[in-house]
Design a protein that fits this description.
This protein is of the alpha/beta class. It contains twelve helices and eleven strands.
Length: about 325
Amino acid sequence: MDLNLLDGMHDRIGGRLERASRILVVTHVGPDGDAVGSLLALGWLLRARGKERLLMCQDPLPEGYRFLPGSDEIVQQPQGVFDLVVSLDCSDRYRMGESVAIFVESLPDAVPLINIDHHVTNTRFGTLNWVDPTAVATAQMILELAEALGWDLAPPVATCLLNGLITDTRSFRTSNVDSRAIQAALRLMEAGASLADITRQALEQRSLASVRLWGQAIDGLRLEDGVLWTAVTGDMCRRLGLDGDDFSGLANFLSGIREADVVVVFTERGNGIIDVGMRAAPGLDVAKMALRLGGGGHPQAAGCTLAGELAQVQERVLAEVQRSLAGQRVAGS
């Protein structure tokens, strides 16, 4: 994005935030580290500006991110009256969750929605849309916004934002990591965030129950024509006492298997809802696959949420993955 245009976007967003009295800040269902970190960081920044705000995520917060400062403030249901909505890390309106999307749509037309996201598949659903696919994480965009507006980077803000950078880049190992991302991490560390502590708590630590679940999912792995997939079922989670956990780490782990061009992890969330997480080897694009299934993401990491029986969803998704993969192989040959 042109720097002058970017400065103008920062000013427009800052102006909207400053004029608002009560702000609803939301992020996507099945929250990952970038979603949670961005949500909390903006919450801290707005609090420092004296703003009344409600931080919301429709799904429970995964255990691995509850160490982040302010995590106990996140609610699952919208309540009250707002004069501004900010959506973070959501590629489309319904990524906020059905109940949240319905609530937002019920607000008066005069209530603006600011859409801040880094997914290339974003549908520009906001009143004001700042979408930057060159950013490695939405947290990086929140950092740049705060710096452009001269807002103080207190240690809680820095910690939450660095969590977003670390988790969305798998500790700076994804192919989109550039000097801009590394410099952002350096500024956050200088502001008081600990790279070692966040990496340990967000990426390395997990419960014994979740490791056992990984074992069951790995036992169910199947590989066909370069597509590796497995399922995390509701029964598996219930037996192990796991609810609302983030299983993106499993997809990331499986993406290191040499024989896999594409990895797909299906997770039953209850009420006939299936989360689909996809990972691709370098040079392949799962964002295109996810977009055709109503989802979105990045070329190497994407996903969607579908309704239906697990077997039906698997058949539909795997057919689309194989079809798209075959086309990409022909195009690349």
